[in-house]
Amino acid sequence: MRALLPDLTPWRSSRDFRRMWLAGLVTVFGSFLTFVALPVQLKELTGSTVAVGAIGAVELVPLIVCGLYGGALADALDRRKLILWTEAGLGVLSGMLLLNTLLPHPLVWPLYVVAALVSALTGLQRPALQAIVPRIVPHEQLPAAIALNQMRWQAGAIAGPSLAGLIIAFAGLEWAYLLDVVSYAVSVALAIGLAASPASHDAEKPSLRGILDGARYAWGRKELLGTYTIDMAAMFFAFPTAIFPFLADDLDAKWALGLMYGAGAVGSLAVTLTSGWVSRIHRHGRMVVLAAAGWGGAMALAGLMDNIWLVLLFLAAAGGCDTVSGLFRSAIWDQTIPDELRGRLAGIELLSYSVGPQLGQVRAGGMASVTGVRASVWAGGVACVASVGLLATALPRLMSYDARTNEHAVAMRTLRATAVTEAA
What we know:
α2 (15-46) packs antiparallel against α3 (49-76), α4 (79-101) packs antiparallel against α7 and α6 packs antiparallel against α13 (308-336). The mean pLDDT is 85. This protein has a single domain (13-423), classed as MFS general substrate transporter like domains (Growth Hormone, Chain: A, Up-down Bundle). It is mainly α. The chain has helices at 9-13, 15-46, 49-76, 79-101, 109-136, 142-170, 173-191, 208-220, 222-237, 244-250, 257-273, 284-304, 308-336, 339-371, 373-394, 396-399, 407-423.
């Protein structure tokens, strides 16, 4: 049993990791309140599945542009400062949602504008958040740190949506937005105490050429390319969260909306609470593929169920599969990418695991308007399984990846060991 429990070594050994972990926990909790409140508010104001699914469309371009540029910034600037200022900006945007909700007649267009700006700031911030972890955690502790960060996300993803449903039902949308603003204030206060994380002395200024250099590196690493395409396909076909408010209506279970948003995180938490096994798995690519197929299969079953409790069960199973995929994707990224390229590659990674969900919301909302809500869910799951299977056959480098023998993983392990020896 002890071998299954999460490895807490990164928490004990790194003060900055503890501080970042706590700041992220608070932010995730608040962000999930807004994650539920925004589509609910759009549903109340428009009554349209297409209007709710359009959130993904307005978020897409800012995420692509700012994600790539944010990766270049993370390699060229102090990563701590970049995290701090974008976190403060996200808090201001949550305040704008609150002010709009307090109007006698809330407007629809500010919801889309703020969603696009949040996507832009998230794109600027995420590469720095990911790229800073290998600097504050020893190389051999990275899989454990990834699992702990996943656990943090899951705790917020369970508590946030579950409480959001209750808060919206009994107190109103404005309270969900207010708590999100407060969470950002607490997170900024914690981030101020992080140690500086300056760029390397020979870092290039952010430029299109630098971004293209990162893209060329990613293209040359077929195992990395495989992790991107597998995740994008899985999220595009089987990410129906935008239509959960309509699915709850279809199942005559409006009371379960918060549980539907939080069910995936319950499955994810079950995986990370027993994540001691992660460090003993070396065939990371195969785990990515199997878990992505499992995600699609579970979503298909969720769409076919008439009983709300079975729907929640399969949503939880999907969340567990997604976490397994995420753990091993992150392990491949963090253990093989050179530090001088880490920010730019993190920008590309951000697109791989964020663009898919944005487009998935558009797909789910558009398809639901034609075929019905439940058909949109189960058909997307089936398409996910089929696409992952086809991609796996076309990606032999991903399927054969082994962390013990991969030349990039071996080189990074040797480099980190040399740096520790020299520092000692």
